[in-house]
Amino acid sequence: MASHIARPASRLPSTLLSRSPRTTKHLPRYPSPTFLRRSLATPTTAKEQPRLRLGSLAPNFQAKTTQGDIDFHEWIGDKWAILFSHPADFTPVCTTELGAFAKLKPEFDRRGVKLIGLSANDLGSHSKWIADINDIANTSLTFPIIADADRHIAWTYDMVDAQDTTNIDEKGIAFTIRSVFVIDPAKKIRLTMMYPASAGRNTAEVLRVVDALQTGDGKGVTTPIDWVPGGDVIVPPTVGTEDARRKFGDVRVVRPYLRFTNVGK
Description:
Blueprint: H1 14-17, H2 33-41, E1 62-65, E2 68-71, H3 72-76, E3 80-86, H4 92-110, E4 113-119, H5 123-137, E5 145-147, H6 152-156, E6 178-183, E7 189-195, H7 203-219, E8 233-234, H8 241-248, E9 252-255, E10 258-261
Parallel strand pairs: 3-4, 4-5
Antiparallel strand pairs: 1-2, 3-6, 6-7, 8-10, 9-10
Helix pairs in contact: 4-5
């Protein structure tokens, strides 16, 4: 029986590792197919790609979008932001997703959240695709979509599929997966979601987790399973029960470590 040989993890060139996400004005281009094949063959000599952790600073970048050139951190400003990636223009799942996000944009606007998409095609393709999305979904897409044809932003944010020779495009570059990054006004990554290219996302869930994060920050609480705005929230263990009652009013104690209250919508 043939044994399974695990493929090595993705690697990142040392040129990118040595630069600060705050000060880098021009990120290096996506690693070449030659580099990718070399990193697969010699994992011990290549540096590992840095991982983006919850609470870490979202890497800054400059990009061309359907609404002009942007500096990502400047574009976010003092708002929350959602950066979400798509494998390619004119693909079925991506088209349904962009249409759904376009329809839900007013809800994100009410929460002070800016939306920005990313797809691995150029601006000319994006413009034609947006016309298709609007027609199919009967909507008007008004948020920007980043042109990332060479995947340099997708690589920086680790939005690419496993680096192996069975899952690359005709350019020899790995496909972009469906990633979601929720970023707060301090430019910190607060939540990530990763989906394979074959599975579409749930826009209502993306909105729900934004509500959970903003409620937690604003009220000093945490949210239980399946929480939606208006539902009971959890008093953090760091807050004593009497202090919680003074702050929130009614507190329902299920266990000393599990206490519920309600902070409204």
